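Revision sheet: structure tokens.
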Amino acid sequence: MKGKTVIKNVKVVLPDKVLENYCVIIEDGKIVDIMPFMDIDNSRSIDSLVSIGDYEVIDGNHNYLSPGFIDIHTHGNSGFDIVDGYYHALDMIAEYNIKNGVTSFLGTVITSSLDDTKRAIKNVKEYINKRKNTNLIGVHLEGPFFNPTKKGAQNEKYIINPDLKVISELLEVSEGSVKMVSIAPELEGALDVIEYLRNEGIRVTLAHTDAKYDQVIRAIDKGITIATHLFNGMSSFNHREPGPVGASLVDDRVYCEIIADGVHLHDATILLTIKVKGYDKVILVSDSMRAAGLNDGEYEFGGQKVYVKDGIARLSSGNLAGSTTDLRKSVYYMVKKLNTSLYEAVKMATINPAKALDINDRKGSIEIGKDADLIIFDDSLNIRLVMLMGRKVENMGLI
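Predicted:
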């Protein structure tokens, strides 16, 4: 592929609007210009610009050009899970994400034995080092420091109290690949672990918790900045004890993950969350497990049997066990079902997670100087093209 690319005839999705009939110019994996089909003084067309340089031209046929989606909470898909711990599983998970427009994701490790957790972390670390052009950017540890009373689909067998020695061992194995850790802040030792992780530059999230409001606020002061799948896996809001839901909604330091699949949250709950937090502080996540992209049936998740019926994954207890959705479907749900504007729905799947992970200097929006992680999709959110660092991903039904 040539080092320079022009994507023309596209509607460019920015965080605050959509630009009609624009072009984006890419060089060496970076966005170098965003301009109308005719440049600002109408003195030269894109075609004439291309004629003087070694550019590949991609005609977007008036579809949407968007930043690639960023999923900070996904366990797997296509029959595979991050905890499986081998390269082929990561290849299949990454490929499925690419086909659904996800150009960056954190491989989320469900609560597992410490040996399996270390193996999964090591596998991701080595995979990223080996696969230089991958959309897998790190690890999210969803566990093992949770409150068993709010375990959801987490395997209680492996849940433990927060422990500085344990987390330091996991980070030693990770060599920088762990980017985010979920924790129940009311547990003994949690505040010390939260502060330690914050000082290591790792994002800390609130999850599977029965914490009181004041306990959550203290944890936010120590470093929590994200609420994992808000409302799910945590005590409910009460008018006299707002708990983790109330603290997450009212504190501007916290981003709130939501799973927009029509199952995990009532539509009104999603709309209420957005009304309170605003579009800038809500993050769409898939929380997908290995059944995503496959048919109903029996699966495994965190060492437990999961039964998928009508696309809904549950344990035998009835607890929801992740989801079978993806970010493309989530954005579609927000736009087509909840009447969210396209750019606001895309924002929740791109620049918001990028800011939450502190990678927005290079990812999450179409801006000059940022990585050319881009997708083209039509009015029905069908993915037509995916680019990673300015390189087309093949076998995508490219335009």
